[in-house]
Each structure stands twice: as C-alpha cells, then as structure tokens.
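Slide 14.
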Amino acid sequence: MNRYPVSNYGDGLDVLAGWSWYTTTKSGGSTIAGGTSIAAPQVSGLAALVWELLPDCTNTQIMQLIRQNTNRGDGVWDPQSGYGTIDMAKTLGAALTLSGRAPAAEEPKEPVPPPVAEERDTTPPILTLRGSSVIELTEGDTYEEPGYSASDDRDGDLTRSVTVSGTASTAYAGEYTLVYSVMDSAGNMAEATRTVIVSPAPLPPEDIPTEPVLTLIGSNPIILHLNGTPYTEQGANAFDEADGDLSAFVSISGEVDTSSAGTYQVNYSVTNSAGLSASAVREVRVLAPQETISRTPYSFSGQGKAGSSDSYSVTAEAEGEIELTVSGLNKAALAVSVIDSAGSEVFNSTFTGNGTQTFWVAEGTYRVETTIATAKGSNKYTISLLMPEVVTINFEEEEVPLVGLPTTDNPNTFDIVIMSVGVLALIGVGSTMILLLKKRRT
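Slide 15: predicted structure.
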C-alpha cells in the first residue's frame, strides 16, 4: 500500500491504513466513502481490539505493538509510510500470544516435524539519556531537552518509540520528574527518569549606592597641530542615580600647551553624596609637522641621424639644482639646451659621450631641446633629469576637532586650578569651583 498523494507525511507519521471507498453507515442507511475519515477509525478500532485482549497494557505499549506488526514488521521507519500499513491479523495474533490465549493450531494434514522452540525475548531495550540525569535551573530559565536514545538487541533502533511523560515548568520553583519509557515488540519495557530542579529566582538587590557616571564632552583623544588650533577645555557631564545631575561639581585639572609638541592629560573627577567617586582622563596630543624632501625625475629617449632634434617639457616645483644625465650615445655628439618659459636659455652643453651636468634654475616650466650634432648613421640616446628638491610639511594625523566652545584671547596654554569651597547642604554634595587661569608664554 502506498501513501495517498494528498495525505500528510513526515515526522508525525506512525502507520498507514486503507482509505479507498468503504461502505459505511450514514443517516440510518449506508453509503460509499473514503479518505482519512475512513483510515483513522481502522487504526482506532485495531487499538481497541488489542486493548480488549491486553487490558493491562498502557497506550504506549498498544502503539508499539501495532508499529511492530505492520505489513513490513521490520521496525524501520521512513517519512513516507511510517512503520508500514497496519496488519490486523498479525497484530491481534501477537496480542493473543502476549495474553496467553493464542488459538490452537489446526491439525496438520501431513505429519510435520515439531517446530524448534524459539527462545522467548525477555531482554528489555536499552534506554540512554543524553546529558545529566539531574538538571538545575532557575525560575525564568528555559528548559531544553538534552535528548535520549533507545535500542533493542532484536528490534534495533527504538529511539522514535520513546515516550516522555511529565513536565518541567520553570515558571515556578520546584522539583520535576520526567519519565522516559520504551517497549520492544516482545513487550519488554525500559524506563529512565530525569530530575529537573528549579530554584527560586534571586530577590532583587537592595538599593546600594553606586558610583556616579562621568562622561567626557567631545573627543578622546583630541589631536591638535603644533601652533595650530588652540585647545579649549571641553568639560564633562556627570550623573548620579540618587543625586541627579552633578555636572556642575566635576573637578578638572591638567595643562595643555599647543606651542609645544607632546602628549598632555586632562583629569576629571566627581564625588556623590555617598562618598563614591568617578574619574576619567582625556588625552590631548599636540603633533609636530613632518618634513618630506622629494625630487621629481624625468626621462626621455630619442633616436635619429645627425641633425635630428627633439623637444621635451619639464617643471621645477621649487628653485634649486637640476641634475641632467645623458646616456646611450655611441660615437655621437648630442647638443642639449634648457630654455625657461620666457624664452631665455639657462643651460647649453654638447655631450660627446655619456655624462652628467648640474645647473641652477628658478621655480617654473622649462623646455629641454636636443639635437644630434654628429653621428655615424642612426643613433639612440636617453636624457634623464632630477629636478630641484621640494620640501613638503605635513602632519601624521589630521586634527580631531574641538566642541564649539568660546575661545580665549591667546589660548596657546592654560592652567586649570581646582578650589574646594565647602558642602552644599541642600543636597549634601561637595561643591567645587573651577577656575581657568590663562597664562601667556614668552
């Protein structure tokens, strides 16, 4: 028997039963019908007959007996047909055998040798729990079943036949017991238990004073360039659960001098009415510029007979010395002249062989003209120029901008002095006055 295409299948499938057009009662008469409404009563009716023969069996044992006595009877499950199609005769015969009321066998027409007595299966399955047999949780936790496995020396893997009874509720503290059971085709049972202990959730902690929360305003670290943007104190916010806003009572100390490269620290602290303090440190890095020296190279190649000439353009990004090198000449003479943007010649020389010469130029654009003065046939050459040195000033990192607070007259440097001025009686918080003293550097 095959599964009808529109029937359900998958993990919830146990067995199949026929459903194709049976005569059934309806409204005092009879009719022909089919479908799961016909298949399901067949399984229910078989279970009722087995229970009548074995009234002491549990529902789990009844289900296992039906599974083990299908048309296949091999105990193998698959998602399309479960354990197979129910076999009423086979199942009821097995039930009669277990009840001790098996019908007497018919007398054989011909003498047959006595059957070999099969050893009765009295070995229960092996039921194994994964994880610990005692699990401890706290109210509000989620119980996750660690799993289990079951096998039998004759029936093979019975894991899918294991039933679990009991509930582990983590909503309430207590001790819960889960019972795992499985039965083989011979009616042998195996059981195991797992204990789940749920402890009461801890009581909320008493109101214990906590440290205030101190938050720096602006960036940390702050990066400034030497003699660039002046440093203006950024300040800090402070909040305490009991005292509220303590920003006005934050103590600040430290010194930043943007006329001198280096790393500076500004210290912040605040204390609440319970005497608990919080502190923070801001790092201010004043960076000196880095100097980079570079020289732009040019290289040109030419070819031709005596009288051939070429012209090339180069740029001097700064005033300085140009180093001009001629290479590749072979029994030839090369005339080289350098002319500035105004048309004035700043260099003129004839190379009769490979060589290097230097000359001074101002910043600007120049034209390099070459003429092969003498040569035997065609000749090749290469002319290379190393332009004047260019000094570049830059900083390793960009400035990290400050919060837009008012700047001072000449704030290259400042000192921060903290003065304690007593206790604010209304809220019991130590009050602090902050003075910013500007100091000119000479």
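Speaker note: The longest strand covers residues 364-375.
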